[in-house]
Amino acid sequence: MTVIPRTPPTVRGLPIVGNMLDLMATPGMRAFLTRAYQQHGPVYQMRVLNTVMTVLAGPEANTFVMKEGHKVMRSEEAWRPNDLELGAQRSMISLDGEQHRLYRRAESRAYSRSHFAANVRPALKVAAEDLTAFQAGADFPVTAFCKSVITKQLARIVVGGTARPYLDDLLKFIQTALMVTVNKQLPRLVLHNPAYQQSKARVLRMVENLIAEHRAHTPEGTGRSPDLLDDVLADAKIHPELWGERDLRLAGLSAFIAGMDTAANSLAFVLYRLHKHPEYLPDIRAEVNAAFRHGTPSAEQLAQCKHLLHFVMETMRLHPIAPAMNRTLTQDIEFGGYHLKAGTNLIIGTTVSHGLERFYRDPETFDPTRFAAPRSEHRQPGAYVPFGVGAHTCAGSGMAEGLIMLNAAAILHTLDRTLPAMYTLKETARPTPSPDTKLVLKVGQVRHAAASLLA
């Protein structure tokens, strides 16, 4: 009779802090989880201060989550505290099962690739507005620019709102809430800070006003195209038991949250890599200039910029914004030769696959050509999962990829920039991985006026 061990191996760490410094160090969580996977296999434990975490990692974990995750895992423990702090009872990310499917169906159209395609010009108008300010010799603060432009684009095209007057409040409110309730990076005491409370109140009032405007001026009455708020307001009439007023408010707020620390941070890493690896710029810039030759490109024309697409994909392979997922077991399972009990909080190391030689040749080397035929290394099952796996795969992946491509192309077409020779990438996670604020490019020359993006 085979005895199944009940305790997975533990990754060695330092006294007191455990593996906390490993998780914080550049190149970040993905690389640490990959090293631990290579040493211990697909299930192991790590410790951060006094908290022991069980990790399921690698392609084995991804396959298990895709096939069995919806039966034996849930997101409530990880994300409900954030819902409550954001003033709601539930959200798409904290729900599972049928309720999750209903929320996802109501919200996904406004984050889809097709919705991006229909709104390329409004999104590009935001980028042009922000790029106009940069002249030769100016500093280009990468992370600040990316957070600003993508948050404003999503506000405009997903809920018909404006983030510009509220950007500082949004950053303070959303990032602080996530770092307290999800990442546990900050103590709950900071939620009582008067400046935080003021930002929270302003943002929630702004979303309430947006909802009121949508109720008063419907697509049927105005002829405008429906957006996210119209979709969830319509669904609330069909499923009133699922949508309280505060849940509707959080759905609207999600448009501002969606790209602030995800697509924006991915774009920041892309801009860093573009200047770290200038050998790829001539081919990328040639296809970008061709796309803008006759003014605003279509989503289809952007998608044909294969050099840029592969560059973005390689950046997201090495710098995934969501390197892992948090879940809680709802029943006992056996995985990787270990017995794990119901109630165990898990970290699913989804992007460990990105660093494995079984999928990628020289996996830690930056090489966008690995995505082109005939190599197409990412097409192996489970090899490339920058947007998560299973029932909670990112609903906005099409929108995110579109905005990253659009903004990278607009910046390349408009400005020449240089990376300071002394800069060394340092990743931070506040709350998701990002280049640090010291990543500041220098504008060399203006290649094309920002207004030409809309010609």
Automatic annotation (TrEMBL):
It comes from Deinococcus cavernae. Belongs to the cytochrome P450 family. GO terms for biological process: sterol metabolic process. GO terms for molecular function: heme binding; iron ion binding; monooxygenase activity; oxidoreductase activity, acting on paired donors, with incorporation or reduction of molecular oxygen. It comes from the Bacteria. Its cofactor is heme. PROSITE patterns: CYTOCHROME_P450. Heme binds at residue 394. Signal peptide: none annotated. The lineage of its organism: Bacteria, Thermotogati, Deinococcota, Deinococci, Deinococcales. InterPro entries: Cyt_P450, Cyt_P450_CS, Cyt_P450_E_grp-I, Cyt_P450_sf. It holds the Pfam family p450. Keywords: Heme, Iron, Metal-binding, Monooxygenase, Oxidoreductase. This is Cytochrome P450. The keyword DNA-binding does not apply.
